[in-house]
Amino acid sequence: MVEVTIEILVSGIVQGIGYRPFVYNLAKELNLKGNVQNLGDAGVKIIVQGSKEILDKFIELLEENKPKLCIYESFQVNWETTPSLFESFEIAKSSSETKGIGFSYLPPDVSICDECLQELDSKERRRTDYPFNSCVDCGPRYTVIEKIPYDRPNTVMTDFPFCSECNKDYKNS
Acylphosphatase-like domain: which residues (predicted)? Predict the structure, then answer.
């Protein structure tokens, strides 16, 4: 089977909404190799390797199953046949690199979602009564960002360290 490498460049609302974990989980599910990375122009770069058939499915699922807050302004796929470059799939450290493929928007602030409201009221869950609960589908984005790429250290939240459990969640999703 011939491995193919593709670079996918996306712009729109693709940072601060759980897009990289979504891409990571999809790539792992399809046994693909490569990485996903936030860019300095608020876009995202995906480099992924696998068979053409599986990569076609990956692209289809990126478009069909995107996160709730995701809006694609541009979705550019560059195909090439290269030797295997990766051994696994990972979320790469954000880059100040810009690709200029389309306009990216800062993600909006979104009111608390039903799942986070349920977590506030549940006595069995760790965020019970925590007034600042949010997730990839809700919470502040636009009002807390200081610069892009959108990563926690680039927001006003950098002064509020995660507890050990939340830090595990952040690093593993």
Answer: 5-93
Q: Is the pLDDT of residue 82 over 80?
A: no
Beta-strand relationship, 4-13 and 44-50: antiparallel
Mean pLDDT value across the chain: 89
Domain residue extents for the chain? 4-91, 114-172
* Residue 70 reports pLDDT greater than 90: yes
Question: Which residues contact residue 33 at a Cβ distance below 8 angstroms, ignoring those fewer than 6 apart?
Answer: 27, 48, 49, 50, 84, 85, 86, 87, 88, 89
Q: What number of residues does the chain have?
A: 173
User: CATH classification of 4-91, choosing from 1.10.10.60, 3.40.50.300, 3.40.30.10, 3.30.70.100?
Assistant: 3.30.70.100
Q: Mean pLDDT throughout 28-41?
A: 95
- The pLDDT value given to residue 92: 93
Structural contact between residues 10 and 63, judged by C-beta atoms closer than 8 angstroms: no
